[in-house]
Structure formats: C-alpha cells, structure tokens
Design a protein that fits this description.
- Strands 14-13-12-17-10-11-15-16 form an eight-stranded antiparallel β-sheet. A five-stranded mixed β-sheet has the order 1-2-3-7-9, sandwiched between helices.
- Helix content is 26%, strand content 33%.
- A hairpin with a 4-residue loop joins β1 (51-60) and β2.
- With 337 residues, it is α+β, with helices and mostly antiparallel strands.
- It has eight helices and 17 strands.
Length: 337
C-alpha cells in the first residue's frame, strides 16, 4: 500500500513539474484586468464598427502623473469614458456617494470614492489631454459610464448588516450613468434601422454624428496615447501593469536584450513539445515598433529561443507589487511606447 502511495506522489510531482506552469497565474489576482477585456470585447460586439481602448494612462497636467482610465469607447458621433467595477459581495452606497464593498469570501471591507464622480473627473482629464494634442471635441460629445461587471454583487443602502435584506437598492435607483450587472447583461446590439433601444438609452443619449475627420483624429490620438503594458496569460487571463525586465540564465537574458519598449511593441511566446512532454525551451517572436504603419507583417517578426524557466518581471497596475511570471505561462505581451 505504501508503495502505491509513494508512486502516486512521485507521479503527481512529475506531472506538476512537466505539465503545470500556471502557478504564476494562480498567484496573482487577474480578475479585474480580465474583466476590463471581457467588457471591452462585449462592447465591440454591441457596437458594430466601434473601437475600445483598454488601460489608458492619460497625463494629468494638474498632478503631473498619469491618470488611469479603464476603457474608452469610440463610436461614430461619440466617445464614452467607462469605468469597470468588478466588485463582489455587498456594496453599500453612503450619503456622500462613496461606496463600501464587503467581500463574502475574503471577509474584507474596501472603501471606494464615488465611482461616477471619479469617472467624470477622468473624462475631464482626457478632454484636456485631447485639447493639448490639438483636438477640440464638440460640446457634449464626451460622456462617461460606470459598468458593474460582476454578477456576484448585492447593493444596499445602509452599512448596517442587520437590515441588509430590507434595504436592497433597485437598478433604477442608480443614476442613469451607472449600468448595473442586470442592465449590462440585457443589452443587445441594436439594428442599424432603429433609432432607440438599450444601447441608445444607456450610452448614446441622442448625440449628433461627428465628422469623419474628428473621428479619425481621435482614433489616432487614443491609439498613440500612453497605456499600461499588458500580459495575456494562459486561460484568457490578462494582467495590466509595467514590464520591468527579464530574469533567468545569463544567455537567455542576453538573447532577449533587444526587447525594450523603445524598440519592440509586442512579443508572442510559442511552445513546442516533443512526445507530449512540456518544452524545456520556448520560441519568443517579437515585432519591432513601427510608428509609420498600424500592422506588422510576418517578415518583420524576429525570433529568440530561451529556456521555459525564463521569467518576466512585471509591476501590477495601481499597485506597488512586483510579480514574476514564467514565460511558459504567457501567451503574449504588449508594450506601450
């Protein structure tokens, strides 16, 4: 019996060693960043032909520091600054507009500034940034919304836990700029022939069509605006933050020495395995940054071969935490200019 148990432990250890490289993913909370990309993907489907910019860092002249913005939706005739709140558990709204969230699983209480006021402030900073880059938007063109993306959230009016059940907030009790999860999942793509509907009521507000030239200028500015670096991990998970460096064997770090944000815009990690075993080496394809064109042709990609144990050192967005990710857990990495 003991022999079977020992053999089982050995086999499990070998499996973890050769087949499981998701430890880095499990060690980091990726839910907030992943929620941003999930919302962005759904918005692009709800708005035919629209563009969604994720993880902007807009310079703020008043504070001399970048202002993070979750999403900016650019559609014909409008742009919307969107804050995505991936809160779970009980969310209480205080009289001053601030929110308090209590996680049921972690038993943790967090305080949040008024999300709508914060998003309006971000929209104002973005508008000033656009003016600095030579684009004056039509009055009322830029709006803001807050989307509550987590289904596991309950809204209450009071912080008293003993009367939660008698003080539940209805979706209609929120300002129209706040889209609750129930409203979010009910949104449907509106037919082009319709002039009203969920999308019109929740986002558009009857704004006029803007000129194509303004749309093109805004698209260019947002496409070249500072953004967080992003990691796409296995399992369709994302992490936003700042790439710092590679760690590993000297020859591997040397092979990746050309991957710097001033030169490289994106890298892709390719895995090749033999006889079903996890690869000991990885192929890293990276594309040089080209400010003259939007795409990168296949011939522009360069290649480096490194050990799978090589790590990416990454500082998480809005946090002082620095984490290491094995290249084997990464699908791709995009670097902001």
């Amino acid at each position: 019996m003991w022999f079977e148990i020992i053999c089982g432990l050995v086999i499990y250890s070998l499996y973890k060693l050769f087949f499981s490289d998701d430890d880095d993913v499990l060690d980091v909370e990726t839910s907030d960043s992943t929620a941003l990309f999930a919302v962005a993907d759904r918005l692009s489907k709800l708005y035919d032909g629209a563009k969604v910019y994720v993880g902007l860092r807009i310079p703020d002249a008043d504070t001399s520091s970048p202002q993070p913005i979750d999403l900016v939706l650019l559609n014909k005739g409008e742009a919307v600054v969107i804050a995505v709140k991936n809160l779970s558990g009980f969310v209480s709204v205080k009289p001053d507009g601030s929110w308090v969230s209590e996680s049921l699983s972690k038993h943790k209480v967090d305080h949040h500034p008024d999300p709508l006021a914060e998003t309006k402030r971000q929209a104002s900073i973005l508008e000033s940034y656009l003016e600095q880059r030579g684009l004056d938007l039509p009055q009322g063109y830029l709006s803001c919304k807050v989307i509550l993306s987590n289904p596991k959230v309950w809204y209450v009016l009071t912080l008293d836990p003993y009367i939660v059940s008698s003080s539940t907030i209805q979706s209609s009790s929120f300002p129209s700029e706040i889209i609750t999860y129930d409203q979010w999942v009910q949104m449907k793509p509106e037919p082009k022939s319709m002039l009203s509907g969920w999308m019109k009521g929740a986002f558009r507000g009857g704004k006029k069509e803007m000129q194509d030239s303004i749309h093109q200028k805004l698209d260019f500015i947002l496409s070249t605006a500072p953004m967080w670096d992003r990691l796409e991990l296995k399992g369709n998970k994302y992490v936003l933050g700042e790439f710092l460096e590679f760690k590993g064997k000297q020859e591997d770090v040397q092979a990746l020495r050309h991957i710097k944000r001033s030169k490289i815009s994106r890298l892709v990690v390719q895995k090749t395995s033999m006889l079903g075993f996890a690869p000991t080496r990885l192929q890293v394809l990276y594309a040089r940054r080209d400010y003259r064109s939007e795409g990168t042709s296949t011939s522009d990609w360069q290649e480096a071969s490194v050990r799978s144990s090589t790590e990416v050192v990454f500082q998480l967005d809005n946090s002082s935490k620095v984490r290491k990710f094995k290249l084997s857990s990464i699908s791709s990495m995009s670097l902001s200019a």
